[in-house]
Amino acid sequence: xxxxxxxxxxxxxxxxxxxxxxxxxxxxxxxxxxxxxxxxxxxxxxxxxxxxxxxxxxxxxxxxxxxxxxxxxxxxxxxxxxxxxxxxxxxxxxxxxxxxxxxxxxxxxxxxxxxxxxxxxxxxxxxxxxxxxxxxxxxxxxxxxxxxxxxxxxxxxxxxxxxxxxxxxxxxxxxxxxxxxxxxxxxxxxxxxxxxxxxxxxxxxxxxxxxxxxxxxxxxxxxxxxxxxxxxxxxxxxxxxxxxxxxxxxxxxxxxxxxxxxxxxxxxxxxxxxxxxxxxxxxxxxxxxxxxxxxxxxxxxxxxxxxxxxxxxxxxxxxxxxxxxxxxxxxxxxxxxxxxxxxxxxxxxxxxxxxxxxxxxxxxxxxxxxxxxxxxxxxxxxxxxxxxxxxxxxxxxxxxxxxxxxxxxxxxxxxxxxxxxxxxxxxxxxxxxxxxxxxxxxxxxxxxxxxxxxxxxxxxxxxxxxxxxxxxxxxxxxxxxxxxxxxxxxxxxxxxxxxxxxxxxxxxxxxxxxxxxxxxxxxxxxxxxxxxxxxxxxxxxxxxxxxxxxxxxxxxxxxxxxxxxxxxxxxxxxxxxxxxxxxxxxxxxxxxxxxxxxxxxxxxxxxxxxxxxxxxxxxxxxxxxxxxxxxxxxxxxxxxxxxxxxxxxxxxxxxxxxxxxxxxxxxxxxxxxxxxxxxxxxxxxxxxxxxxxxxxxxxxxxxxxxxxxxxxxxxxx
Length: 717
Ligand code: BGC
Fold this sequence. Notes:
Blueprint: H1 6-14, H2 18-24, E1 26-29, H3 36-44, E2 50-52, H4 69-82, E3 90-93, H5 106-111, H6 115-130, E4 136-137, H7 161-176, E5 189-193, H8 212-219, H9 221-228, E6 233-236, E7 240-241, E8 244-245, H10 250-260, E9 266-268, H11 276-279, H12 286-296, E10 301-302, H13 306-316, H14 322-338, H15 354-367, E11 370-374, E12 385-389, H16 396-400, H17 416-426, E13 430-434, H18 443-448, E14 451-457, H19 476-487, E15 491-497, E16 513-516, H20 524-532, E17 598-605, E18 609-610, H21 612-616, E19 621-629, E20 635-645, E21 656-665, E22 670-677, H22 679-682, E23 684-685, E24 691-692, E25 696-703, E26 710-716
Parallel strand pairs: 1-2, 1-10, 2-3, 3-4, 5-6, 6-9, 12-13, 12-14, 14-15, 15-16, 18-26
Antiparallel strand pairs: 7-8, 11-16, 17-19, 19-22, 20-21, 20-25, 23-24, 25-26
Beta-D-glucopyranose (BGC) binds at residues 54, 57-59, 94, 138, 191, 270-271, 465.
């Protein structure tokens, strides 16, 4: 996809000086108005290839300068008209889950189990962000994560490589569209390559220990999918793997990324990551950092200006070869050409259909709601009296979640209080809101209330980059509200707004229903409240395991079997788990309820044996199952298929998701769902990165979540 721009890129390269080449690998930070002239001088000299449109290290949590399109157009004009080589700059910003319209956090998008809807939403995000000069987004974040203490779990696709891969494709296709050179397409950046989600202890920026076997089978698949879907760039990650910083690793950046995954675009460093090589103990000085990073295959330096300051001398002394430099520059040029920047370097004002974006944002937020408990209480009737309590009735910013740099706040993001009054008002009911806690003065209302509604969870300020938590349960005051609410004897509904799968064991007994609403974006409040009152039927599924309590971390569904009966995820054992707690999850991967009920029947396998050569040559095993809506409401069910490779040369997981289908069913309606498994689904990677399928027996599980019972055994002969 990018190699086809090689001839033109090489022609451009031929006309470039050493300094101009180095400039293409330099990404500077967004200048304020006071520095525009200084930047123009640098641009005239060809010293800036890209600008990151942020100004601080943790952009997802800090206030960022708003983008001024005229400034960016005028800087670009300098590049196009006053520099010698006339190469456009590429502008990048963290457009993670929305621009002005904010969509649910990526972990919630994954919970929708609806890649096509996600693709549509990310197409709108691209349209929104490109209209304000952002050619390139530092998204999608594809870090598989088994530790919800890590604040950045909100940005990623959860714990499963298959779901993550389908989401990766959706994000990339959404951002980049069918034609990357179209003005409303933006270059995607698969990050953080690689292994950052395995930060030890869930502490951000920490070291990781990842075997090649785990890397290939769990960590790399979403990156492989993003590369295959055409992602133009990849961001290297801060972490080291087994003592090797990714920033300076030829193994990860060149051999695996370009060799094994076939990546053709360019690699950008994470923020100041090149300079961090010194702190990581690999480099002595700035030049050493540059030498190690560029020689490893890291093409563009983000923000710390190490390349621009030291690369010239390194090339002249031969420590970095001209060939290595040229290759990096060519990669950058190819992406700029593919993105159409040479033909369309400027942004023109255009009209955005915001109503459409907002509607899609609400749709995705609604589809991502995960109903994890419902003792016959939800949905609520709108004509009743509700006593509602929340610590964040009016906190619009929280609803957006972390990494929403440009989200429109104010009235365009309705608050929970506004949504609640509006929705209950429509049905003629009454809401009494207690700002925090069930106050004494609510006694009168409690006596008359039919239901207590608690809108709880965590703030966006404890999620995202450098926002890890050592305890992921609800705060003690929120636990106290749950207890107090239960003591009223009324039915209690808990809606949990969060950026991670919180550990809810301590409040679960006090809540008759629990709806996980995540941080849902611009329309989070309406999506959640309308779900509570039955305008939407929840259909999200857990994209990650919900542990009972923090001490259970890590707990993930696709674990290998042990030699002893300690498979806590799939069943309790009195001797071989914790002495003080059941070892199983509170809510397993893939789990989620609906207001209606679904029945699976008539599971059939077209055949239960397949020849080894046949499957390698593309033949597949086909399975069908009937799914019926047996309740009295329309709803959506996500049928899932898991496999277990019973005997292989390496231990294989107890379950691996290999397909899912989300289907809409009217009451009484039945549909047949088909799954196919072939070479790609039944094989696995060996530690040397080669892919293998081994003969033998596989178990197949089809059902509602990862605890689905065994449906078939199939044999690869
Ligand atoms: C984060 C990246 C982000 C970059 C630029 C870093 O601190 O790790 O995810 O893209 O900053 O804002």
